[in-house]
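quick one, 96 residues, struct below
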Amino acid sequence: MKYPKMMAEYMAYSQDLKTRGAFLAGEGLKPITTAKTVRVRGGQSVKTDGPFAETKEQLGGFYMVDVKDLDEALALAAKIPDARTGSVEVRPVMEY
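---
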């Protein structure tokens, strides 16, 4: 494993979310080199290698949590290990 200390921090963070009862789902994602993009144009499916958008940053994984409000979500996001060196995006789930 390339980053055993960081992975241990993620495992501890995930366990903390579960202990709080906030964890709903979460997974790490493989690198963008494994991505495929699908677009349908004129009724034809076009598949290409690579990510949807060209960017220097990439989504490394996700957590879905059940919290009482945005403040709690932001507080939990600040505890994600990569928040110290990268960024963490927080968005609510769309309700229909």
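The CA atoms of residues 17 and 23 lie 5 Å apart.
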